[in-house]
Design brief:
Blueprint (H helix, E strand, L loop, with lengths): L1 H6 L13 H7 L15 E2 L4 E2 L6 H6 L5 H17 L1
Antiparallel strand pairs: 1-2
Length: 85
């Protein structure tokens, strides 16, 4: 019985990205592509990415000047970065 309890655990589900476009859209009512910023603004020196939104400094600085198609490209990069590493 004890063996069964110890070794019959189910595998953990695959980790979900910390931030994603669908959740960001749910938090904003604007029709434009929402910012990925979650107010954890801290750069990781090893990756050169923000620990909160997974953007580079260049992407953060450019965000306000990007149009929606360009912002979607940044979101695609963010989601890829989270699943890659």
């Amino acid at each position: 019985m004890l063996f069964k309890k110890l070794f019959s655990r189910r595998a953990a589900p695959a980790p979900r990205p910390l931030i994603n476009l669908d959740d960001a859209r749910a938090r904003h009512v604007d029709p434009e592509v929402p910012s990925p910023c979650i107010s954890v603004c801290q750069m990781d020196p090893a990756t050169q990415l923000c620990s909160g939104c997974y953007r580079t400094l260049e992407e953060i600085a450019a965000w306000s000047t990007l149009d929606d198609p360009q912002r979607l490209v940044v979101w695609e990069r963010i989601e890829a970065r989270q699943t890659a590493g």
